[in-house]
Design brief:
By secondary structure, the protein is an alpha/beta fold. It contains eight helices and ten strands. It has helices at about 35-40, 45-55, 80-95, 110-120, 140-155, 180-185, 210-220, 250-265, and strands at about 5, 15-20, 25-30, 60-65, 105-110, 130, 170, 175, 200-205, 225-230. The strands form two sheets. Strands 1-2-4-3-5-6-9-10 form an eight-stranded mixed β-sheet, sandwiched between helices. The protein has a two-stranded antiparallel sheet with strand order 7-8. α2 (about 45-55) runs parallel beside α8 (about 250-265) and α3 crosses α4 (about 110-120). The two termini are about 20 Å apart. About 40% of the residues are buried.
Amino acid sequence: MTQPFHFGDPERTLFGVRHPAATTPCAAMLVCAPLLQDGIRCHRSLWALAEALALAGTEVLRFDWFGSGDSGGDHVDIGFDGLLADLRVARAFLDTAPGGLPIRVLAYRSAALPVLAQFAGPSAEPVDLVLWDPQLVGRATVSDWRRQHVMQVRETGRYPRGGVVAERDELLGFDVDPAFLDALAGVDATGIRLPAGSRVLVAAWEQDADLRRFIATQRAVGVTVEEVLLDPADRPAWLEPKVFEHQAFPRRSVAGLARHLAAEAA
């Protein structure tokens, strides 16, 4: 049974949901949701994945970034440095759970940007990451969001009388600090080097040039990379404006990824 709770600094409270392992736990997983509107759209996918992993014996913690979901703060309080701080707090919280379980960190889509920035560097400790459909170039991610915002305003029939302007501090229902988007746009994770000895599982519906470069960079510095190809026919239409508000639930991919991760943890 899921266990919702708040944790962290009282002035920067985070909301978490624990999915307890149904059997004696063999591993722990920290699940990081995509940023902004994608985090809302992917809620069902991450819940289903967490439940499947918990049933197979993995302790799972999902959390909302500060300024989003049921965590403290407002949308405008989301900042890149704050995302890194949230990651440290959430991982430390999971690390203090009884049993001293090995921890994997799963980042879905745009969550890969703060996760990779947080754990990169030659002096950092080796990490165990799962990158699901990772967005690795911040500038492209922000550009996609802005383009989608314009499509929602102008091309979906929401405002038949026109006159709506896509403001710089408004993005897909979020009031955002432009400095946050600028900082995110400045991250290019394709060349980030994780510590030698780290392990990364990349699950993607397709591999583009950015992802291939990232994988090659990691292997060159002694990082073990496993690649899982998901069924391309199951990939959500992320940038299709007519279905933008639908829950993005690639059922077959969620089930397949859960089976793969559970088998590795066993």
